[in-house]
Amino acid sequence: MERIKEVLRRKGVPASTPRICIYDYLLAQKTHPSAEMVYSALHPQMPALSRTTVYNTLRMLCDIGLVKQIPICEGDMRFDADISEHGHFWCRKCGRVIDIDAPHIATNQSHHEIGNVDEIQVVLIGTCHNCK
Ligand SMILES: [Zn+2]
Ligand SMILES: [Zn+2]
């Protein structure tokens, strides 16, 4: 908890209880939860927590670079506190999002002709072994 407070303070944001709890939850989870999943998991212990606070906090954590958004099909945005370079496998059937080694995609000249590349997202979509 102290470490999280320190990290938030260093990013210049006040370490409010929802921020600490949501970031702590994301760090502990390897499931890449959606905003709704974060809300459902934390709401029982924090009855005052609203969906809006969860959405706004997740957006803020992304803005300050502590959390990454993973764009998954069908508008189901997932969140990851592991900001190291890696890709994801998304199971269409059960919705699991599994970390994978990021296939190396070099940003070549043609990308730069289109615009600046800030981030590379690799999402493989399929059916996991449990669902086959
Ligand atoms: Zn599956
Ligand atoms: Zn991940």
Structure in words:
The chain has 5 helices and 5 strands. It has helices at 2-10, 17-28, 35-42, 51-63, 109-114; strands at 68-71, 77-80, 87-91, 97-100, 123-126. A 3-stranded mixed sheet has the order 4-3-5, with no helix packed on it. Strands 1-2 form a two-stranded antiparallel ribbon. The protein has 2 domains: 2-80, Arc Repressor Mutant, subunit A (Orthogonal Bundle); 87-131, 2-Layer Sandwich (Dna Ligase, domain 1). By secondary structure, it is an alpha+beta fold. Strand 3 (87-91) and strand 4 (97-100) form a beta hairpin. Helices cover 36% and strands 16% of the residues. One zinc ion is lined by residues 32, 80, 82, 86, 88, 99.
Summarize the model shown.
With 132 residues, the chain is an alpha+beta fold.
Beta-strand content bin = 15-25%
CATH class of the largest domain: Mainly Alpha
Radius of gyration: 16 Å
Q: What count of structural domains?
A: 2
Q: Trace the largest sheet across and list its strands.
A: 4-3-5
Total of helices? 5
Shape: globular
Helical amount among residues, as a percent range? 25-40%
